[in-house]
Design a protein that fits this description.
Length: 246
Amino acid sequence: MFEIALLLTAAFVAGALNAVAGGGSFLTLPALIFTGVPPVVANATGTVALLPGYMAGAWGFREDTAPPPGLSMRLLVVLSLIGGAAGAALLLVTPDATFRRVVPWLLLAATALFAFGPQLRRLLAGGKPSTAKATAGVLAVAAYGGYFNGGLGILLLALFGLLGQTNLNAMNGLKNWVSALLTAIAVAIYAVGGLVLWREALLMMVAATAGGYGGARAARRIPAPWLRWGIVATGLVMAGLFFWRQ
């Protein structure tokens, strides 16, 4: 019962975090590994569990969603699906030991990019948004998301900021739509590869969905700086825990 309660709690809070600004897998992945699930399977199962939460979060931000400069919604959908499929295929051939070693570095990099996203955007700002650069950026982040869901929302928010978006609610809505798309195609590939523990995933789905919708509606009334630094703190703590376990 303790393990079930842990997974449900982690999924609920993760769904809310993903709807707000990302970082939900910082909770679901450690929770699954703590209950004895191998790292690669834990990553895939946690990703499946958060899919409905992404959808609920996207619906919660439906009034605010808008594409970043240089991309249309149609192109964004295509890029999300292609990148997500590529990343999921890579996960299928990654050994558990290798994945365990790279996880804290991925978490740390994602957190740092999110923390310094505004400074990077100002540094790289100038000129008309490039569709080619935006396309490459979305493909790379979508592939990352298909491979390792941890920090996906943080990377997407940083990317949209670099592309010129400034409204955090619009960025959050788009982040959830892109996350849902790339996660959906990744989940299909995980399932074919036999990486998903369906009992745990289905239990966590229910909690993540509730957290996703509630978090999205609440986030629209929370000051942006509070959201940003709360996510940075979560990322740093989880990265530190994974380094400590190595």
